[in-house]
Design goal:
It is a single chain. This protein is mostly beta strands. The chain has one domain: 3-layer Sandwich (Rieske Iron-sulfur Protein), CATH 2.102.10. Helices cover 0% and strands 46% of the residues. The chain is globular and about 35 Å long. The model has no long low-confidence stretch (mean pLDDT 96).
């Protein structure tokens, strides 16, 4: 059963931007890729850097610590497709961005 939780609003996160939110004790990164929202775990699979504080270019987030890159659509590392960060289902309800944990 889905557990939809609000993480931000569409008006709070402009296209090309990302932010961090804590939900139920879990640190998440939220991304706006040309009006489509994605959510991943905020912890880089390389060495634990804060992905939500990185640079978002298209659908690729670059970790600010060691420049590892991940596609926010599927969580896969650009450098190693076997390395991933967790991704979460997202839906929009009016202006609210909801994530299924």
């Amino acid at each position: 059963m889905a557990q939809w939780t609000k993480v931000t609003t569409t008006s709070e996160l402009a296209p090309g931007k990302c932010k961090v939110a804590e939900v139920n004790g879990r640190n998440l990164a939220i991304y706006n890729v040309n009006g489509t929202f994605y959510v991943t775990d905020n912890t880089c699979a390389h060495q634990g850097g804060p992905l939500g504080e990185g640079l978002l270019q298209g659908s690729v987030i670059t970790c600010p610590w060691h420049a590892w890159q991940f596609d926010v659509k599927n969580g896969e590392s650009i450098f190693d497709s076997g390395t991933k960060v967790a991704t979460f289902a997202v839906r929009i309800d009016d202006d609210d961005v909801l994530v299924d944990l």
